[in-house]
Each structure stands twice: as C-alpha cells, then as structure tokens.
C-alpha cells in the first residue's frame, strides 16, 4: 500500500469517459490511447496493430445486451494484458495491440471471427466484420489505422470499401 496518495491537480485533464453500455473506453479515449502507442511505436521502431470488430447493423438498430457481452467476451479471449479494448459506437469495437506484427493481428482477427460466428447462434443473428491493420507509413494516425482495419474486414468478407 502506498504511503501517500496523489491528489488531483486543479488543472489536471478529466479522466476518459466510459461507454455506459459496457464500461469500455469510448472513442475519444481509445483514439488517445492509440496515439500514445503510435508515438511509442515510432520512437522505438516497434510494431503496433489494431483489431476492429464491427456488427453489421441496419439503420436505427443497436446491439442487444447479450450481443455486447458476446463480443466483449470474445475479444477478451484473444487479448493479452498489454492490449486495450475500446468502443467506437454503432456496434464497433477496437483493440490496440502494442508490440504485435500485422501477421499475428490477422491471425487473432481470424480466430475472433470464428469464435463470434460459433457463439452468435445463442443471440439474434448478426454478421460481424473483423479485421486487422498495422502502423505503417501509409497508416500513420490512429483514425487511419482503425479505418484500415475496417477495410481489411470488408475485403475479407468480399465487400468493397466505399
């Protein structure tokens, strides 16, 4: 137990907000985490990958509580202690995978897609897009990597990115 506890400073930034439905970091918080990891990856020339899981929703539809539990449970099974998961909203989740090459992230995405397909029979039928992308010269921002993971997911499922 620490001998002292640091009190918040008056000018300290507010803590990241949590998405109420599943207590994961929201889009702003997870993108901030990704930007921090991008700086680290570029500074030390280390790999950084991202998994994105997106439920195909019709306009006005939302994930049920059972689906949220399903997807977050499946993602958690694929992660290490150093990985971070966040919610992007509209049925999309992202996992930041520091020190992970794109090949390993793609393998994790395939395992996750299989697990979601196998386990989604117990909840309302839903199609899931699962993809991975890695930091590179072409994908150098957090938003670009998350977008790249969605494009990879769409290509995996035989769709074209718009």
Q: Care to describe what's here?
A:
The chain has 162 residues and is of the alpha+beta class. The protein has 4 helices and 4 strands. The protein has helices spanning 27-44, 65-78, 102-119, 142-156, and strands at 48-55, 84-89, 92-98, 128-134. Strands 2-3-1-4 form a 4-stranded antiparallel beta sheet, sandwiched between helices. A hairpin with a 2-residue loop joins strand 2 and strand 3 (92-98). Helix 2 packs antiparallel against helix 3 (102-119). The longest helix is centred in the first third of the chain and has 18 residues, at 27-44. It is globular, with a radius of gyration of 17 Å. The termini are far apart. Mean pLDDT is 80; it is low at 1-8.
Put simply, the count of helices is 4
Q: Regarding quaternary structure, how should these chains be classified? A: single chain
Alpha-carbon distance between the termini?
53 Å
**How much helix, percentage-wise, in residues?**
40-55%
Output the radius of gyration.
17 Å
Question: In one word, what is the shape?
Answer: globular
- Strand composition percent: 15-25%
Low-pLDDT ranges: 1-8
**Quick one: biggest sheet?**
4 strands, antiparallel
Q: Helix-strand pattern, N to C?
A: HEHEEHEH
Strand order of the largest sheet: 2-3-1-4
Strand segment tally? 4
Global mean pLDDT: 80
What structural category do the secondary elements indicate? alpha+beta
SSE diagram, text form:
Blueprint lengths: L26 H18 L3 E8 L9 H14 L5 E6 L2 E7 L3 H18 L8 E7 L7 H15 L6
Antiparallel strand pairs: 1-3, 1-4, 2-3
Helix pairs in contact: 2-3
């Amino acid at each position: 137990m620490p001998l002292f506890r640091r009190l918040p400073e008056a000018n300290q930034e507010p803590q990241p907000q949590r998405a109420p439905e599943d207590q994961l970091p929201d889009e702003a918080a997870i993108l901030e985490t990704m930007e921090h990891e991008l700086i680290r990856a570029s500074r030390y020339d280390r790999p950084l990958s991202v998994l994105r899981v997106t439920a195909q929703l019709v306009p006005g539809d939302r994930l049920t509580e059972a689906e949220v539990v399903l997807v977050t449970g499946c993602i958690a099974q694929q992660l290490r202690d150093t990985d971070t998961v966040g919610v992007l909203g509209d049925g999309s989740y992202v996992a930041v995978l520091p020190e992970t090459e794109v090949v390993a992230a793609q393998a994790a995405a395939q395992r996750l897609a299989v697990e979601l397909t196998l386990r989604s029979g117990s909840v309302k039928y839903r199609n899931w897009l699962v993809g991975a992308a890695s930091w590179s010269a072409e994908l150098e921002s957090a938003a670009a990597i998350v977008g790249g993971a969605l494009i990879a997911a769409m290509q995996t499922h035989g769709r074209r990115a718009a």
